[in-house]
UniProtKB/TrEMBL annotation:
Annotated InterPro entries: cDENN_dom, DENND6, Tripartite_DENN
Molecular function as annotated in GO: guanyl-nucleotide exchange factor activity
Cytoplasm is among the record's keywords: no
Family: Belongs to the DENND6 family.
Origin superkingdom: Eukaryota
Species the sequence originates in: Pan troglodytes
Keywords: Guanine-nucleotide releasing factor
Residues of the UDENN domain: 43-486
UniProt protein name: DENN domain containing 6B
A Pfam family this chain is assigned to: DENN
Length: 572
């Protein structure tokens, strides 16, 4: 899904507020409440500045009734500025991801479940983390005591729309740095007029006199092909020869440290890596940009336990010394767009890690289970030759599409056998009878699945050779298998419950009631009502006709009971 559109109510105007209350959360918003539309897209907008006495300081939070904890404020302040090793002059855009300190919050998003049930995995709202989309400016300014103007404009959201929000910042931030608060208030008011996101529709969003549009259906000044997809080819240019290894590390949920020269390179590499598994949900933690000041620094760097399943993007070489015990470290250099392909980073043993001056490379003892796809690099390398020997490369967006398709097909080839085997564990529909508890889903047997690969394995859809069995065995121990299995088992259990409800609705209820006691009849009413509530809440995949028949059955059954029981079951 690359486009969004929806509807939402208008709102009353608010005002800019400085960073104030420290308690967590915000009162629930009804659809007609102030900032209801704004809250469908953003949690808040923050401005972080550099104070000579305080260091990074939160200058304002907008809307002013959005409350961040002290820990969240501190994290936003540090994550919104490149560290001193980056040396970023001018304008820099990057992103970060941080944990909500109060766990799941944002109660005004009552439609989260509804939205997420319709949205692809890559576009779903985060329940317990915030994304921060940053536009940082550092320029010489003689009027400032320190000699430099340093400020960041940050969009905080639970939506992973990196391309949309970066495009939005590129419009807003330069104007804001010139005109400050009045400009920001006007922009937030415009965002509060946007329709709410809804999967599958075209997005037309006006801001600062410009229409930002996703899907090029109408003429528009700014057109985004996607709200979330990065330029994969640009991100992966220095590591294309190791794409197979990196894909496997992501699939297995291995801890990976990405050390980059700047926050923009770090954040884009981490986001690109975590997108490699689509359409499989990325179930591990990831931090596009992380600093030593982060509240979770001790948690991630402890040596008293195994490294956590997280992809960590950093720019401070100090992390190489601190995280030498991590099994996989990727160091990338400054991006170079000249020529056909940049020099590829080398695969190196972790023992060759050196503190601070470590050269670019993928430092790991991991050996890929699958053979490298040599044809991929050829397809991505040189374009067709023009007369006179001039080599014309494909546009980067075309290269990205080829790379994204390759990764998608690779992931699908790996997952399809699991999907087929999981489907075989579902009870047959003919075994589901209306008046008995539905049969259970059969347990997942790793040995049975591995035996099934001989005739129904990934070799049917993928040309890559290698140790597929070994890769599956390691996958069974990963967070991604656990996440995939739990989700598929939940979906199958709901489907089983829906089939049982349909079986009941297709049965002759009056015949069943003839020899049943009042207790059994009342029990049926209660169970039918419970199923009906779940189905009406979109948790069960049933047709509207089934819901109507279930309601009719409930009324029929209640009508057969004595008046006193009817009064209990249907109080006035």
């Amino acid at each position: 899904m690359d486009a969004l559109l929806g509807t939402g109510p208008r709102r009353a105007r608010g005002c800019l507020g400085a960073a104030g209350p420290t308690s967590s959360g915000r009162a629930a918003r009804t659809p007609a409440a102030p900032w209801a539309r704004f809250s469908a897209w953003l949690e808040c907008v923050c401005v972080v500045t550099f104070d000579l006495e305080l260091g990074q300081a939160l200058e304002l939070v907008y809307p002013n009734d959005f409350r961040l904890t002290d820990k969240e404020k501190s994290s936003i302040c540090y994550l919104s500025f490149p560290d001193s090793h980056s040396g970023c002059l001018g304008d820099t855009q990057f992103s970060f991801r941080m944990r909500q300190c109060g766990g799941q919050r944002s109660p005004w998003h009552a439609d989260d479940r509804h939205y997420n049930s319709r949205a692809p995995v890559a576009l779903q709202r985060e329940p317990a983390h915030y994304f921060g989309y940053v536009y940082f400016r550092q320029v010489k300014d003689s009027s400032v005591k320190r000699g430099y103007f340093q400020k960041s404009l940050v969009l905080v959201s639970r939506l992973p729309f990196v391309r949309l929000f970066q495009a939005l910042l590129s419009l807003i931030a330069p104007e804001y740095f010139d005109k400050l608060a009045p400009c920001l208030e006007a922009v937030c008011s415009e965002i509060d007029q946007w329709p709410a996101p809804a999967p599958g529709q075209t997005l037309n969003l006006p801001v600062m006199g410009v229409v930002v549009q996703v899907r090029n259906l109408l003429p528009a000044p700014v057109v985004l092909a996607s709200v979330h997809e990065l330029d994969l080819f640009r991100c992966f240019r220095p590591v294309l020869t190791h794409m197979q290894t990196l894909w496997e590390l992501m699939l297995l949920g291995e801890p990976l440290l990405v050390l980059a020269p700047s926050p923009d390179v770090s954040s884009e590499m981490v986001l690109a890596l975590t997108s490699c598994l689509q359409p499989l949900r990325f179930c591990c933690d990831f931090r596009p940009y992380f600093t030593i000041h982060d509240s979770e620094f001790k948690e991630f760097t402890t040596r008293t336990q195994a490294p956590p399943n997280v992809v960590l993007g950093v720019t401070n070489p100090f992390f190489i010394k601190t995280l030498q015990h991590w099994p996989h470290i990727l160091r990338v250099g400054e991006p170079k767009m000249s020529g056909d392909l940049p020099k590829q980073v080398k695969l190196k043993k972790p023992s060759r890690l050196k503190t601070l001056d470590t050269k670019p490379g993928l430092y790991t003892a991991y050996t890929a289970h699958l053979h490298r796809d040599k044809a991929l690099l050829k397809r991505l390398g040189w374009g067709r030759r023009e007369p006179g020997g001039v080599q014309k490369k494909r546009p980067s967006d075309v290269q990205s599409a080829l790379l994204r398709r390759h990764l998608l097909e690779l992931t699908q080839s790996f997952i399809i056998p699991l999907e087929h085997y999981m489907a075989s564990l579902m009870p047959l529909q003919k075994s589901i009878t209306p008046w008995k508890t539905p049969p259970q889903i059969q347990p997942f047997s790793q040995d049975d699945f591995l035996r099934s690969l001989e005739h129904a394995g990934p070799q049917l859809t993928c040309i890559l050779k290698g140790d597929w069995l070994g890769l599956y065995r390691r996958f069974f121990k990963s967070p991604h298998f656990d996440g995939w299995y739990r989700q598929r088992h939940k979906e199958m259990a709901l489907k089983l419950e829906a089939l049982h409800l349909e079986a009941i609705c297709e049965a002759n209820i009056e015949t069943w009631m003839k020899d049943k006691s009042e207790v059994e009849v009342v029990d049926l009413v209660l169970k039918l009502r419970e199923k009906l509530v779940r189905a009406q809440g979109h948790q069960l995949p049933v047709k509207e006709a089934t819901l109507q028949r279930a309601q009719l059955y409930i009324e029929t059954v209640i009508g057969s009971l004595p008046k006193d029981l009817q009064a209990v079951l249907c109080p006035p």
